[in-house]
Amino acid sequence: MSEPVVVVRGWDDLGKLLLRLTVALLIGFHGIGKLKSGIGWMAGMLASHHIPAFVGYGVYVAEVVAPILLILGILTRPAALVIAFDMFMAITLVVGAKTFRPSPQSGGLGGELELFFLLASLAIFFLGSGRYAVSKGHGRWD
User: Fold this and answer.
1) Non-local CB neighbours of 76 within 8 Å, separated by 6+ positions
2) Domain that holds residue 57
3) Cα–Cα distance between 96 and 36 in angstroms, integer?
4) Which terminus of the chain, N or C, has fewer Cβ atoms within 10 Å?
């Protein structure tokens, strides 16, 4: 005879919380670093791509504000999209051609960290915030 299948409810919400917190905390450290040292280093890079320097301030939204929203579970889907866009821009402007080139030291891709954050943020966008959020996952944008 086969054994009955035990279904544990609520684990998907715990997984959503873990994913939200992981992405938010790790991206948040990048934001704290930029708050401490500024974003002046971005000006030349942005100018070389014909992007005005003030656009660089968007990194504070993506790496400080959006992680706070993810932690709380408020406006989770838009916050995740902001982080995904930030990582897309990081890949485009900073990592560039090294994105899919394996590193000789580790064998990992040159842009694996940025790709991880981009794809994890998209996963949060598609999954939503879940039950363990201020919004309880009931809002249209959560």
Assistant:
1) 20, 69, 70, 124, 128, 129, 133, 135, 141, 142
2) 11-127
3) 26
4) N
23-59 core/surface letters (b: 16 or more CB in 10 A; e: else): bbeebbebbeebeeeeeeebeeebeeeeeeeeebeeb
Per-residue pLDDT of 92-129, as tens digits, reads 988 888 888 888 888 888 888 899 999 999 999 999 99
Query: What is the predicted pLDDT for the residue at 1?
Result: 59
- Token reading at 23: 């992405």
Report if residue 31 sits inside a domain.
yes
Which 8-state DSSP code applies to residue 75?
S
Rounded to 5 degrees, φ, ψ at 129 are: -80, -30
Note whether residue 95 is domain-resident.
yes
Does residue 51 lie in a domain region?
yes
User: With contact defined as beta carbons under 8 Å apart, do 138 and 17 qualify?
Assistant: no
Q: What is the DSSP letter of 1?
A: -
Whether residue 103 is contained in a domain is answered as yes
User: Looking at residue 94, what is its pLDDT?
Assistant: 85
Please name the residues in contact with 138: beta carbons below 8 A apart, sequence gap of 6 or more. Answer: none
- Number of folded domains that form the chain: 1
Give the amino acid at 93. L
